[in-house]
Amino acid sequence: MPLRTDRFADCPRCATQVHAVWPWPHWGRLRWIYFSVLGLCLVASPVILADGFVMIPTMMVWMAAIGPINRLAAKKPTCARCGSIVTPVVPGSAAPSRPPELRAAS
Ligand SMILES: [Zn+2]
Fold first, then answer.
1. 72 alpha carbon to ligand 1 midpoint, in Å?
2. Spacing, Cα 17 to ligand 1 middle (Å)
3. What is the helix (H) or strand (E) element at residue 17, kind and residue range?
4. What's the CA-to-centroid distance between 100 and ligand 1, angstroms?
5. pLDDT string in tens for the chain (106-residue length)
Protein backbone atom coordinates (compact mmCIF):
# COMPACT_ATOMS: atom_id res chain seq x y z
CA MET A 1 0.00 0.00 0.00
CA PRO A 2 1.64 3.27 -1.07
CA LEU A 3 2.17 5.99 1.49
CA ARG A 4 0.77 9.39 0.61
CA THR A 5 3.33 12.21 0.57
CA ASP A 6 1.50 14.72 -1.64
CA ARG A 7 0.17 16.93 1.16
CA PHE A 8 2.10 19.40 3.27
CA ALA A 9 2.18 19.83 7.02
CA ASP A 10 3.99 21.92 9.62
CA CYS A 11 6.93 20.08 11.17
CA PRO A 12 7.95 21.41 14.61
CA ARG A 13 11.46 19.92 14.35
CA CYS A 14 12.22 21.21 10.83
CA ALA A 15 10.36 24.50 11.61
CA THR A 16 8.84 24.69 8.11
CA GLN A 17 6.22 23.11 5.92
CA VAL A 18 7.32 19.72 4.70
CA HIS A 19 6.00 16.77 2.77
CA ALA A 20 4.22 14.57 5.27
CA VAL A 21 3.80 10.81 5.24
CA TRP A 22 0.12 10.12 5.88
CA PRO A 23 -1.09 6.79 7.21
CA TRP A 24 -3.76 4.89 5.35
CA PRO A 25 -6.98 6.84 6.17
CA HIS A 26 -9.23 3.79 6.54
CA TRP A 27 -7.66 2.16 9.62
CA GLY A 28 -10.42 3.62 11.81
CA ARG A 29 -13.09 2.19 9.52
CA LEU A 30 -11.33 -1.19 9.56
CA ARG A 31 -11.34 -1.06 13.36
CA TRP A 32 -15.08 -0.44 13.30
CA ILE A 33 -15.53 -3.47 11.01
CA TYR A 34 -13.39 -5.52 13.41
CA PHE A 35 -15.66 -4.71 16.35
CA SER A 36 -18.73 -5.39 14.19
CA VAL A 37 -17.46 -8.89 13.52
CA LEU A 38 -16.91 -9.34 17.26
CA GLY A 39 -20.52 -8.29 17.82
CA LEU A 40 -21.69 -10.83 15.25
CA CYS A 41 -19.64 -13.48 17.02
CA LEU A 42 -21.37 -12.57 20.27
CA VAL A 43 -24.73 -13.17 18.58
CA ALA A 44 -23.45 -16.45 17.12
CA SER A 45 -21.87 -17.57 20.40
CA PRO A 46 -24.04 -20.73 20.74
CA VAL A 47 -22.69 -21.97 17.41
CA ILE A 48 -19.13 -20.95 18.27
CA LEU A 49 -19.26 -22.61 21.68
CA ALA A 50 -20.67 -25.80 20.17
CA ASP A 51 -17.53 -26.17 18.04
CA GLY A 52 -14.67 -25.91 20.50
CA PHE A 53 -11.96 -27.37 18.29
CA VAL A 54 -11.83 -24.89 15.39
CA MET A 55 -13.97 -21.85 16.09
CA ILE A 56 -12.81 -21.01 19.63
CA PRO A 57 -9.09 -20.98 18.65
CA THR A 58 -10.03 -18.98 15.54
CA MET A 59 -11.83 -16.45 17.77
CA MET A 60 -8.73 -16.22 19.99
CA VAL A 61 -6.57 -15.40 16.97
CA TRP A 62 -9.17 -12.86 15.83
CA MET A 63 -9.19 -11.18 19.25
CA ALA A 64 -5.39 -10.97 19.25
CA ALA A 65 -5.60 -8.73 16.17
CA ILE A 66 -7.01 -5.79 18.16
CA GLY A 67 -3.52 -4.64 19.21
CA PRO A 68 -2.13 -4.00 15.71
CA ILE A 69 -5.43 -2.55 14.47
CA ASN A 70 -5.58 -0.10 17.40
CA ARG A 71 -1.94 0.88 16.83
CA LEU A 72 -2.48 1.50 13.12
CA ALA A 73 -5.72 3.43 13.72
CA ALA A 74 -3.92 5.76 16.16
CA LYS A 75 -1.02 6.48 13.77
CA LYS A 76 -0.39 10.18 13.09
CA PRO A 77 1.12 11.82 10.01
CA THR A 78 4.90 12.19 10.17
CA CYS A 79 7.52 14.37 8.51
CA ALA A 80 9.05 12.77 5.44
CA ARG A 81 12.47 14.21 6.32
CA CYS A 82 12.94 13.76 10.08
CA GLY A 83 10.07 11.48 11.12
CA SER A 84 8.57 13.87 13.66
CA ILE A 85 4.80 14.02 14.16
CA VAL A 86 3.47 16.94 12.10
CA THR A 87 0.48 19.27 12.27
CA PRO A 88 -1.66 19.23 9.12
CA VAL A 89 -1.88 22.54 7.27
CA VAL A 90 -5.43 23.84 7.05
CA PRO A 91 -5.80 25.66 3.72
CA GLY A 92 -6.25 29.40 4.14
CA SER A 93 -5.69 29.40 7.92
CA ALA A 94 -2.32 31.18 8.10
CA ALA A 95 0.30 32.71 5.85
CA PRO A 96 1.67 29.70 4.02
CA SER A 97 5.39 29.23 3.86
CA ARG A 98 6.49 27.23 0.89
CA PRO A 99 8.56 24.12 1.45
CA PRO A 100 12.28 24.40 0.60
CA GLU A 101 11.91 22.12 -2.42
CA LEU A 102 9.45 24.54 -4.01
CA ARG A 103 11.30 27.67 -2.86
CA ALA A 104 14.40 26.63 -4.79
CA ALA A 105 12.35 26.13 -7.97
CA SER A 106 10.89 29.64 -8.05
ZN1 LIG B 1 10.72 17.35 9.98
1. 21
2. 8
3. strand 16-21
4. 12
5. 556 666 888 999 999 988 899 999 999 999 999 999 999 999 999 998 898 899 999 999 999 999 999 999 999 999 989 999 998 887 766 555 555 555 555 4
